[in-house]
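Morning run. Coffee first, then this:
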Amino acid sequence: MHERLSFHVKRDSFLHRLNPLTKLVMILALILVTFTFPWYWTPHLLVLVAVLPLSLLGKVFREFSFAALRLILPAAGFLFLMQAFFQPVGSDVVFKFYFLDITSESLTFAFKNAMRVFAMVSAFTLFLLTTHPSELMSDLTRRGLPGQFAYVIISTLQILPQMQAKAQTIIAAQRSRGLDTESTFFKRAGSLVPLVGPLVFGSLVEVEERAIAIEARGFTSKHAKTSLHEIPDSSFDKALRWILLALIIVSIASNLWLS
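And here it is:
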């Protein structure tokens, strides 16, 4: 049940053993380099030489591929079509559909932005698959981050898997009562109506229960807190973070220099 509260996939891998802050800096570096480095092919190259190899190193390639095919690619594809058709740049028309047309310039612009979004969401997905929220919160609070901010971070990371798990439970309960959830599209869409009420009100009740639980555990206490599970932070992690920060600075400086 504990694992269902996050997207984290438990594996024994190089990426899982890294410090949570190191992985967070790594993902931020990938995202910032994707959006700031001036070379056109930067996001494409980062996906091929960084994101995909990291998913293999983290032994989550299957889960990452599933998320990419089901979520990331459709979102990036939709963005690509919207910008390709509606970006008013260029005059070299390569495709026309009624009053809509795609120019070579808008096609290039849309492809670059779609790949940027794909690289960004892919990097963040990789972070969620290899980092448990509780480990991230423990490490950040140990470094001095206020508990309120840590709680906001972990709640944000857990809200989708929590809603998904609760929705599956409600669907199973409704199906056991004879609700049709596997026939035509319109009947399945109609079956979502009795799902919304229990899902929304159940989530509100969970918020109140969690607030009571964390208050009972001394969340707002001013005294120094200790953790039963210590998060390791090796010299390799520290060196890697400095290298990634240097990469971010070089990328931003290159963008400012060439702009």
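The mean pLDDT is 79. Good start to the day.
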